[in-house]
């Protein structure tokens, strides 16, 4: 686990979740480039697990994936990781005495888990950032009108097709707190997204 800007009285806490097969190091430079010193960033590592889609190879993953169609959903894996994220938040809240806002964000599988956790948790989440992700199926979505969400996707994403992503967001498209943006890019992160995320965080702190 990596922490950036660890402090006693942050204005906000952002838990950032990496993608499948990656680790916490992948977004250190990206988050540092936001240049938001009053936000504390926590970047946890997903557990090692066999991923069905990758012939059972063991890698870091927040939950199992069988195919890019996402018809199958690993609810046990999602809920296990959701509980892990909620415990991270509770542990930090127990230490900090000042009031601060809580954001979840991530890339690809990490983005999907951020949305799943933020929209189904009983904890108050003040904003969600989804980069190249999608919204998993949730039995009961909570606080969709109260939780600001920004989702950014690549028109040429060959891992999570943009149409699959858009279709997954159908249930929350009606929310005035939801914003979707696309760029001419593949399954990647580009500089323009730094400004998008920075503005989103500043507006919602």
Summary of the model, kept short:
This protein is of the alpha/beta class. Helix content is 28%, strand content 22%.
In terms of quaternary structure, what is this?
Answer: single chain
Mean pLDDT: 93
Side by side, the strands of the main sheet go 1-3-2-6-7-8-9
Number of strands: 9
> How far apart lie the N and C ends?
24 Å
The percent range for strand residues is 15-25%
Biggest sheet features: 7 strands, mixed
CATH superfamily: Alpha/Beta hydrolase fold, catalytic domain
Number of domain units = 1
What is the rounded Rg?
16 Å
Low-confidence stretches: none
By helix and strand content, what is the structural category? alpha/beta
Determine and state the CATH class: Alpha Beta
Helix-strand string: EEHEEEHEHEEHEH
**Roughly how much helix do the residues carry, as a percent range?**
25-40%
CATH architecture: 3-Layer(aba) Sandwich
Provide a descriptive summary of the structure in words.
The two termini are 24 Å apart. The chain has helices at residues 28-32, 75-95, 109-118, 162-168, 191-204, and strands spanning 2-4, 12-17, 39-43, 48-51, 57-60, 101-107, 127-131, 149-154, 178-183. Helix content is 28%, strand content 22%. It has a seven-stranded mixed beta sheet with strand order 1-3-2-6-7-8-9, sandwiched between helices. A two-stranded antiparallel ribbon has the order 4-5. It is of the alpha/beta class and 205 residues long. Helix 4 (162-168) links the parallel strand 8 and strand 9 (178-183). It has one domain (2-204): Alpha/Beta hydrolase fold, catalytic domain (Rossmann fold).
């Amino acid at each position: 686990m990596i922490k950036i800007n660890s402090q006693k009285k942050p204005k906000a806490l952002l838990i950032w979740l990496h993608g499948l097969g990656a680790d916490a190091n992948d977004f250190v430079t990206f988050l540092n480039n936001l240049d938001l010193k009053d936000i504390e960033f926590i970047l946890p590592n997903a557990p090692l697990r066999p991923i069905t889609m990758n012939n059972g190879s063991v890698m870091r993953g927040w939950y199992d994936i069988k195919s890019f169609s996402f018809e199958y959903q690993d609810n046990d894996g999602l809920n296990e990781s959701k509980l892990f994220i909620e415990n991270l938040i509770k542990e930090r809240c127990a230490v900090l005495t000042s009031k601060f806002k809580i954001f979840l964000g991530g890339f690809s599988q990490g983005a999907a888990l951020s949305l799943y956790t933020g929209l189904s948790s009983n904890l108050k989440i003040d904003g969600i950032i989804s980069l190249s992700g999608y919204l998993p199926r949730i039995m009961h979505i909570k606080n969709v009108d109260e939780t600001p969400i920004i989702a950014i996707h690549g028109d040429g994403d060959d891992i999570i097709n943009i149409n699959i992503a858009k279709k997954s967001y159908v249930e929350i498209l009606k929310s005035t707190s939801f914003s979707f943006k696309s760029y001419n890019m593949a399954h990647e992160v580009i500089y323009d997204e730094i400004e998008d995320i920075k503005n989103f965080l500043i507006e919602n702190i």
